[in-house]
Amino acid sequence: MNQPSLERLQPQYVRHFEPYTPSKPDAELKRLYGCEHLHRLNNNENPLGPPLLAQAVIRDFAPPRAALYPSGDAYDLRRKLAARFGKQPDQFLVGNGANEVIAFVIKAFCEPGDNILTADRTFAVYEWVATFSGIEPRLIPLRDLAFDAEAMAAAIDARTKVVCVCNPNNPTGTYWRSDRLRWLLERIDGRCILVVDEAYCEFVEADDFPDGMRLIDQYPNLVVFRTFSKMYGLAGLRIGYLAGQPEVVHAIRRTCIVYSVNTLAQAAAEAALDDDDHLERTRALVRESRVFLTAELRALGLPFVAGEGNFVMLRLPMGDTLAYRRLMQQGFMIRAMTGFRFPDWIRVSLAGLEVMEGFVGALRTLVR
Ligand SMILES: *Cc1c(COP(=O)(O)O)cnc(C)c1O
Known about the structure:
Layout: H1 6-9, H2 12-15, H3 26-33, E1 39-40, H4 52-59, H5 75-85, E2 92-95, H6 98-109, E3 115-119, H7 125-132, E4 136-140, H8 149-155, E5 160-166, H9 178-188, E6 193-197, H10 212-215, E7 222-227, E8 240-243, H11 246-253, H12 263-272, H13 276-300, E9 304-305, E10 311-315, H14 320-328, E11 332-333, E12 335-336, E13 345-349, H15 353-367
Parallel strand pairs: 1-11, 3-4, 3-5, 5-6, 6-7
Antiparallel strand pairs: 2-8, 7-8, 9-10, 10-13, 12-13
Helix pairs in contact: 4-12, 5-12, 6-7, 8-9, 13-15
The protein binds pyridoxal-5'-phosphate (PLP).
């Protein structure tokens, strides 16, 4: 039996793509770094967990249902989303996390030779999916830590199919107000699809933040991403969705993987949408945590960027990989930001006060 000729079989753009390395399980990491507790502050998860209504659904899930395929198009959840946002069910597509809907959109519109536009320092999945699909990602530098609308408009050419804007941006927390978003939507007109990734919109406190869901009615080229992983605390169940006008959603549906969203995730997400109390409690926790952490960082003289969202970026007087190791030894996992093209910066998720106090204590030992 011959070895398959992997070199020949695999497209060059796949062969040259470096696979993502996920973190190891807690038990393994605790042993590796010699810490007793591990606080994961690297993925912007909700420290309060899922809303109580979703927790009840998860607890009451009837095990025999696991033998049956889920609804292939998240039928009930889409009806619920439609009622919630004043739209039609066919304006939504649900995926295995927002990560999967990113792939749906890129595959629905791009072929090799095409390009997508996004920023150089933002959520990397848009760039990654494009790269390993043979699509060129054009990375427009951030300007004052925010997406640069003018530079993006200028970079669009005849092969640009999708423009991805993260609003608010992970990791800088900057956001576009409605006028800037409308300006780019109008400049783009019918030439390409504008994706606005609103993974953190439920955390935003600024009252001039634009609601992409409402703009959809006016702009047929707008697609909005949302996720249940952050505010709704369902990251482990993997569920997110996109919304747009029926025509654009219908076009994307062609590349949508059916049955990729499991029954429990669909049911938990439906329940989560009803729990407004959870949103308020989470916002209060994040607000308090941000006030505490930024005051401590100021006192320590560490540069930081704290915008919208449940995370803060900060710079340490050492490489981010070394900082990662030394924080791990004290039981705190953060996001080292070389991968986001912010070398020497780290991103930390905002958790409860007690955890943040511990984190600041660990930071002190690093900068002393
Ligand atoms: C976390 C995140 C997502 C993806 O979340 P899923 O867990 O795949 O739903 C998408 N966009 C941004 C900006 C994120 O931070």
